[in-house]
Amino acid sequence: MKGATSVKAYYHNDVAVQAWVLQGCGLKLASMQLMHVNNKFTYQGDEDYAGLLTSVDISKPVIALLPGIGAQKDSFMAMLDGDLPEIAMGGQCNSPFECEFCSFCQPDDLPELKFHRF
Ligand code: SF4
To answer: Which residues are registered as beta bridge partners of 34?
Structure first.
């Protein structure tokens, strides 16, 4: 389930990781579907929300990604075993999403920001 109104390509990788974990636990998956908000839905009242969410079968692209997930997992585990990478803050911190570690990575010696109203 995503709080979006369409399937973004990068959701495929999210679902592939989840599918890889579930398959590793021994579950057989009949399909991989992603549910998102239906932007054509119009609330008619009476607490009837049928149709608010819609589901899209993304099994094909997800299955194509599954073989690479194990290799990614190995590289992530190796990264977690290592030292913190020395990477300066930059555009990657806000795009495509704001990183949750900005306060951790923010240097302590930055001058305090002052905002002025015009
Ligand atoms: S804030 Fe996030 S994206 Fe930016 S350098 Fe730190 S960990 Fe990387």
So the answer is: 56
